[in-house]
Amino acid sequence: MELFNASGARQRLRAAPLFAIGPSEPGPALRRGFLIALPVGLALILELGLDSPSKGAIGTGALLAGFPAMDAPAGPRAAWQAAVAPLIGIAAVLGVLTGSNAFLAVAAMAAVGALAGYCFAVSLRLAIAGLSVALSLLIAQDLPLDLGDAMPALLLATAGGLLQAVFSLCVWAVGDRKEQGGESGWDWPAARRALRHNFTLRSTSFRHGLRFGGALGAGVALYWLLGIHEHGFWIPLTILFVMRPQEDETHRRLALRAIGTAIGLVIATALAEGLRGNEIAIAVCLTIATGFAYGLLTVQYALFTAAITTYAVLLADSIGETAFHAAGERALGTVLGILIAGAAFLLWPNPKQQASAAGQSR
After folding, report:
1. Cβ neighbours for 215, distance < 8 A, ≥ 6 positions apart
2. How far is CA 112 from CA 63, 133, 184, 288, 350, in A?
3. Which of 130, 71, 109, 118 is nearest to 245 (CA)?
4. What is the tally of structural domains in the chain?
5. In a domain, 8, yes or no
6. Which long-range contacts (CB under 8 A, 24 or more apart) does 277-284 make?
7. Distance between CA atoms of residues 206 and 214, nearest Å
8. Residue 102 lies in a domain
9. Residue 339 belongs to domain spanning
10. What angle do CA 272, 278, 282 make, to 5 degrees?
């Protein structure tokens, strides 16, 4: 089945409950996931295997650019990836510039998060692009970088995104020319109408943007207040992955996120301890985790979370953080992120009639 729909304009995708599969079938989804993971793996093998100063930055840029339009055929997918790549780079620069100051870090995360959340007003495909950009900011804020690293962050993150686009073009050139009704899923007039129409507190998407940005800002503020800078980004990372405009879908993802994170922490910690010093083997494991993350996103959300957690922890370990000693802080960050996401809906729920109407229309 198609991931979103033929035009990429769908606005909601329900995660399957624990022990269930869906909405995508595992076989095609995993094949697509590992195809999109190939440029990520190539970048990581070169960066880690050659002990490059970039330390996985290009591979991570390619990882983030792989999520937007991952449901689309190769041609439209390449267009989306090329469009998002520079935004991922700009977000990385913003992360470098704001990551050393608590007030700037909170403000930047809240603003970018609000914009990303509001993208749900247009489509799920655009929302995933926005979440990828917000994730780039979050990662860059957490890294121990100084102002001199801003330009390299821009270039490396953008290069990773463009690597994905070039790879998709190559896939298109060798024969993947299937079209989805001739549409890339982007329509400027329709997008402008959706953004204007939803610019009101009565809109679920607008309220989600404000709620999402506020929750992400609160997550960043909390890890500054608690002084857990090295692994505190796990708090807003959890919020970013679980919060959706609909309260029921958010609650579903909260439970699945907790289970998946626990599984991922165990797998990543074991791999990090067992493969210590073997950069090529680590790069291969990161590529496999990437393939599963792409492939399982719409098959089983808890398993997707396990895969993306494995990637994040294993990559962090490869650049100097100790996975075993950091596992407890990451688990704590996940719990705190889940609490913030749940509290956000308690403090500011959707209007009942609006939430009901949104559910019926989708």
Report:
1. 113, 239, 243, 340, 341, 344
2. 19, 8, 24, 30, 21
3. 118
4. 1
5. no
6. 279/48, 279/49, 279/51, 279/318, 280/45, 280/48, 280/49, 282/48, 282/314, 282/317, 282/318, 283/41, 283/44, 283/45, 283/47, 283/48, 283/49, 284/41, 284/45
7. 12
8. yes
9. 26-357
10. 55
What is the structure's pLDDT at 20?
83
> Who contacts 223 (Cβ-Cβ below 8 Å, separation ≥6)?
229, 232, 233, 235, 236, 333
Q: What is the pLDDT of residue 102?
A: 95
State how far the Cα of 212 lies from the Cα of 31, in Å rounded to an integer: 32
Tokens 């001739």, located at residue: 182
CB 198 within 8 A of CB 119: no
pTM: 0.91
Low-confidence ranges of the chain (pLDDT < 70): 1-11, 176-185, 319-326, 353-362
Q: Is residue 12 part of a domain?
A: no
The token pair that represents 153 in the structure block = 């962050």
Q: How is residue 215 written in tokens?
A: 């929750």
Give long-range contacts, CB 8 A cutoff, 24+ apart: 329-332: 329/228, 329/230, 329/231, 329/232, 329/234, 330/231, 330/234, 330/261, 330/265, 331/261, 331/262, 331/265, 332/228, 332/234
The whole-angstrom separation of Cα 276 and Cα 282 is: 8
Q: Does residue 173 belong to any structural domain of this protein?
A: yes
